[in-house]
What does this fold into?
Amino acid sequence: MTVLRTHSDHLSEQDDALSIFAEISKHDHEQLIFCADEKAGLRAIIAVHNTTLGPALGGTRMWNYHNDREALTDVLRLSRGMTYKAAVAGLNLGGGKAVIIGNSQSEKSESLFRTYGRFVEGLGGRYITAEDVGTNVRDMEWVRMETKYVTGISKALGGSGDPSPVTALGVYMGMKAACSERYGNDSLTGKKIVVQGAGQVAYYLCGHLRSEGAKVFISDIYEDKARRIVAEYGATYIKAEDVYAQDADIFCPCALGGILNSDTIPQMHFAIIAGAANNQLADETIHEQQLIDKGVLYVPDFVINAGGLINVANELEGYNQDRALSQARGIYDVIKAIVKLSKEERMTTNSAAVRLAEERLQRIGQIKQIYAGSSGFTGRLGEMSQKISR
Ligand code: NAD
It folds into this structure.
């Protein structure tokens, strides 16, 4: 059946197109790529936010979005976050992210991920992908069959494997930096620390915390996961619903995002919040202000959990875990600098972290104004440079 399209249909299509450009320019995104292949069941969006520092790196999320607009909003927000995370961690990477629209429990297939991999390959390295919520190492191995621009793959295939030990070390160091600000020294000995979520990061983190003599309280919605940490490290088990009202020095979210919200914050009596979970603040402005009003030192999640990104960045350069761990220790100094700036400029720690990231983007953007030779050129310019160097 042929559907007749009216003038107003075209107008509303135009409106949609225009609003997409408005979305892109709102936060200075560079590029959006819509990828579709009906046979493979693929509908994906890749967002490249900023490549000042290097190729845009960020994972591929597979999620059953309610509609395309929701997927677009998510990929734009997440890719921008990656720019700041890499910049403040001192990495030479830009910010990007991708979303595949679909159910990660029932709609995965080799052809879907290999098709997606071909789109990533087509970007010639402007975007490098990795696993994220809803995707795993096996999916990335399918992607890798079609593109070399993928990271975070298994050790068996020459990748860096599980990033959690590096993330955990970064969180531990970040927590110490926060203690040095709050208590005048960075010792965790005797500190009461509530850890929410007993997954991969929490497992390694609790090892560090207990070896420094902290009193660790661990919770998980799956009690057996928390009990493993109780048994191995001598932590104390608490129920998942009891974490927020605990009387403790530090709250360490290592489960889900959005847990700092108007229901949970009024229950809290912590001095510091420092943990690995992404997007901890349900609303960045409202809820960080609520924490400040309560006198809580909030350590921005995208700074303290950068160990995972540091790990995959190292994979790109030829993986060496000692080097990745040593870079993750640097999170200590970054957090000290953020807290210092937030005090001097009377701004939130989140805003101070974004400011540091933007300053680095500007400084490094400027050095790229200098022409550094034509060794990367092909064609006539490449021939010319070869003749000159001969
Ligand atoms: P994981 O999936 O291994 O562990 C998360 C744990 O949280 C699970 O055991 C889950 O049962 C538990 N959980 C879920 N909801 C809970 C709740 N309401 N109360 C208590 N426990 C709950 O994940 P992970 O790799 O340890 O990562 C932890 C967090 O850190 C995630 O938010 C992740 O996005 C973030 N992060 C991880 C890395 C990394 O290197 N793994 C890097 C950066 C950020």
Notes: The chain is about 45% helix and 15% strand.
